[in-house]
Design a protein that fits this description.
By secondary structure, the protein is mainly α. The chain has nine helices and no strands. 60% of the residues lie in helices and 0% in strands.
């Protein structure tokens, strides 16, 4: 049906019955007209097309101002926000995984205190596998900087002993 609308071919099913279908057809027809125009004419008629509610897929330039809003979060505030997130007493497994996934998306290696809070959340949920995966992710995030991961493990050693969590190296997962 989309091909028929764009090309102007006869529609075998008759006219659209619902208002949203008629609106869709109207907009598609206007876009077909807009794309058949030359590029300079599109820029000349940009305001007229915008008034009709047509969004052009690449012809018209939309202006946007990119101002920064608010202040930047300091490192201490960032750490405190994530420690608070993982220290929630009612955190569930999904929230834990979502938090770790979001944290991994940042271009940084999390501080040991954030990892400590995440490991304690794993213990509250009795999720040993997630705890080991968090340690694997930290090692992966450290990348070529070989001094970061041993430092993190050194800082987390008391927590790992207290919670009974083995490192991936102790489990032999680094040899796989």
């Amino acid at each position: 049906m989309l091909y028929e609308v764009i090309t102007g071919a006869v529609r075998p099913y008759g006219e659209p019955s619902s208002p949203w279908q008629r609106e869709l057809l109207r907009r598609l027809s206007l876009k077909r007209i807009a794309f058949s125009m030359g590029k300079s004419q599109i820029f000349q008629d940009q305001d007229r097309m915008a008034a009709l509610g047509v969004v052009l897929w690449g012809g018209a330039v939309q202006h946007a101002r990119c101002y920064s809003h608010g202040s930047q979060e300091s490192d201490e505030e960032f750490d405190a926000r994530w420690v608070t997130y993982f220290n929630k007493p009612d955190i569930d497994a999904w929230e834990l995984r979502k938090g770790v996934n979001t944290l991994v998306g940042y271009d940084l290696v999390p501080e040991p205190k954030i990892i400590d809070a995440a490991l304690r959340a794993c213990r509250r949920l009795n999720d040993f596998a997630s705890a080991v995966r968090i340690l694997e992710v930290v090692k992966d995030k450290a990348g070529p900087h070989k001094e970061i991961y041993p430092y993190v493990i050194q800082e987390l050693r008391p927590t790992l002993s207290e919670l009974g969590i083995s490192t991936p190296e102790e489990l032999g997962l680094d040899k796989a």
